[in-house]
Write a structure and sequence with these properties.
heterodimer, A: seven-stranded mixed sheet, 51% strand, B: mainly beta, six-stranded mixed sheet, five-stranded antiparallel sheet
């Protein structure tokens, strides 16, 4: 089955620790995205990548970092500099064509204690 | 950057009634407007989208209208059913394949 796999689904971390969320897709999509979802806030863009080895900051990139070494993978690191890291994180991908849709993974829920 | 406003934040209707959710956007260059439905604990899924070369698009009980002059677009759900209960998000971008800017969502409750 083609799709986007996010792991882990649930993650608990202590304050001050960095944590990396995995996102893997086998859809052969060029563009990948990370969104953060908080109650009542909608989906806010953290980072996105249109091609391998290139990525751009979204609206709330502070305290986060990403890499795009392979087309299939776009991991997100939540660093200790992120002041409110507890949230639901969604990875998504999209083919670089004029049609298609933004397709989401199942999400990762991070709780910082 | 693009700013998408969505109203209302919550909407309660009786089964069989219609529901309308409205969004406005700020960037006149935006030309792609999708709507996503997110059920509790699940990922958002595309339900319908519209591009700026059309004013209306319909898919069974769901329709979207776009007014580019006024920079607003709306989702219409007719003959609502309890399974329509979910959070709905509108979004806008300059082109498909570019980052979507989302509204804050509308929590729709359809009561039997």
């Amino acid at each position: 089955d083609g799709g986007i796999t996010q792991s882990p689904k649930y993650l608990f971390r202590k304050e001050g620790q960095n944590v990396t969320l995995s996102c893997e897709q086998n859809l052969n999509h060029d563009a990948m995205y990370w969104y953060r979802q908080d109650p009542g806030q909608g989906l806010r863009l953290i980072y996105y990548s249109q091609i391998v080895n290139d990525f751009q900051k979204g609206d709330i990139a502070e305290g986060y970092s990403v890499s795009r070494e392979k087309k299939e993978s776009f991991p997100l690191t939540v660093t200790s500099a992120q002041k409110n890291p507890t949230a639901f994180y969604l990875c998504a991908s999209w083919t670089n064509r004029n049609t298609g849709e933004l397709f989401f993974g199942e999400g990762s829920r991070l709780t910082v204690l | 950057g693009e700013n998408v406003e969505q109203h209302p934040s919550t909407l309660s209707v009786q089964e069989g009634d219609s529901a309308v959710i409205k969004c406005t956007y700020s960037d006149s260059a935006s030309n792609y407007f999708p709507w996503y439905k997110q059920e509790l604990g699940k990922r958002p899924q595309l339900i319908i989208d519209i591009r700026s070369n059309v004013g209306e698009k319909k898919d069974q009980r769901i329709a979207v209208t776009l007014n580019k002059t006024a920079k607003h677009f709306s989702l219409h759900i007719t003959e609502t059913q309890p399974e329509d209960s979910a959070v709905y998000f509108c979004a806008a971008s300059k082109n498909s394949g570019y980052a979507l800017n989302f509204g804050k969502g509308t929590s729709l409750l359809v009561t039997p």
